[in-house]
Amino acid sequence: MPQLAQRMRRAKPSAIMMIAEKAKALQASGRDIISFSIGVPNFLPGPHVYEAVRKALEHDSGQYGSNRGSNALLDAFLAHLAQVGLTGYARENISTGVGAKHVLYNLAEALLDEGDEIAFPTPYWTSYMDIAEILGARPKLLPCPPSQGYKLTPRQLDEALTPATRVFLFNNPSNPTGMVYTREEIAALAEVLARKPDTWIITDDIYHRMVFDGLGYSNFVQFQPSLRDRLVFVDSLSKTYGMPGWRVGFMAGPKAVADAVTTLNSNHITNLPEMTTAAAIAALSGPQDVTVARVADFAHRRDRVHAALTAIPGIACPRPQGAFYAFPDISAFFGRRHGDTVLADDVAFCAALLEAKGIACVPGSAFGEPRAMRISYTCPAEQLEPGMARIAAFCSEIR
Fold first, then answer.
1. Three-state DSSP class for residue 329
2. How far apart are CA 283 and CA 288, in angstroms?
3. Nearest to 50 by CA among 276, 235, 206
4. Is the pTM above the cut of 0.70?
5. Phi and psi at residue 65, in whole multiples of 5°?
6. Is 323 left (phi over 0), alpha (psi -120 to 50) or beta?
7. At what angle do helices 71-83 and 274-285 cross, to 10 degrees?
8. How far is CA 275 from CA 54, 60, 248, 265, in A?
9. pLDDT in tens, 169-219
10. 60-285 has which CATH code?
11. Nearest-5° angle of CA 302, CA 306, CA 310?
12. Phi/psi of residue 35, each to 5°?
């Protein structure tokens, strides 16, 4: 029998989706499950988005669209960028994809040859490692432990990036930690990057409008304009607008990179669907009140979750300031028992928590940090307090 390609030995299913599917299966079997597993914002876009789709249906051309994205969509995204201070881009600097994950995969294909080095901080979003391994790149991990607030330091970055580092991939606000870099921290890292001319920079900033405490969002290129020639900004509709299933992602960067991603689109997807394009234009250009309200709600949820976690003896949790995640350090419980179960590591801890209390969380090892677990606090509001209470009860029973 013919065999699969060698790269499929390196491909793995999403660890996050595996946990989410297990939680769904348990719910279907009658278990009372509260899921803190998947990073879905759990709200819908405003009515103007659906109205735009209805109008588009009435005028559907049925034709192929642009590999890059329609001019109206590119213009809407350029205006969206300008609102956060990322100016100086034109249509030729933009390309689109079927979600930010697809854009990131295309960027990896465009910028990395097999054996090339790609560096990114740990904890990392699971797909960074998966994409690198599928393409045969060499990940260089930059550990950012809880003791340094899960943040990369300029010294770490300076020591890690060498002429052999082809790509530096950076995520702000962070999935899985919810941490946000201050203007001063971004400026300091940008200064280091300016001294590393051989390295492409990808900023995966899909949560950049989900920032709390008046902190604001900053990008390297705002402090070091010379980085514009090798920096790529990645964005998505999924989190900001409650549209993960619509699958629309964007990149802004050098024309050569945007052209490369567009060429890959011509071979992978051809174009975004016309109805999806209409929805995306409406989301980017229309009223932003739904997003603003949800960000305020997530900040309130963050306060409740963080207070509940830090009240549990043995748990340490740096205070997140963006996205909708908390990433508590649970390593104090490793080697101890819950009932007859030895909590050897994060995987055992999360498995026992799901079995004993019906709480689904993702083990931190899926994100390269086995001392922790990820909590996504986007569940229905009425589940938040009971869910945190179950985690507290579980921890109190550990001996």
1. strand
2. 8
3. 276
4. yes
5. -110, -170
6. left
7. 30
8. 8, 8, 11, 18
9. 999 999 999 999 999 999 999 999 999 999 999 999 999 999 999 999 999
10. 3.40.640.10
11. 180
12. -100, 120
Residue extents of the structural domains in the chain: 6-44+290-396, 60-285
What is the token pair recorded at 165?
Answer: 């580092």
Superfamily of domain 6-44+290-396: Aspartate Aminotransferase, domain 1 (3.90.1150.10)
Residue 188 in tokens: 């300091």
| Residue 123 buriedness (CB in 10 A; 0-12 / 13-18 / 19+) | buried
3-state secondary structure of 325: strand
The verdict on whether omega for the bond into residue 139 sits within 30 degrees of 0, i.e. cis, is no
Q: Each residue of 51-96: pLDDT tens digit? A: 999 999 999 988 999 999 999 999 999 999 999 999 999 999 999 9
Mark the ranges of the chain whose per-residue pLDDT is less than 50.
none
Phi and psi dihedrals of 87, rounded to 5?
Answer: -115, 175
Closest CA to 215 of 187, 182, 188: 182
How many residues belong to the chain? 399
**Residue 192 CA to chain centroid, in angstroms?**
24
Distance CA 105, CA 113 (A): 13
Q: Give CA angle at 172 (171, 176), nearest 5°.
A: 70
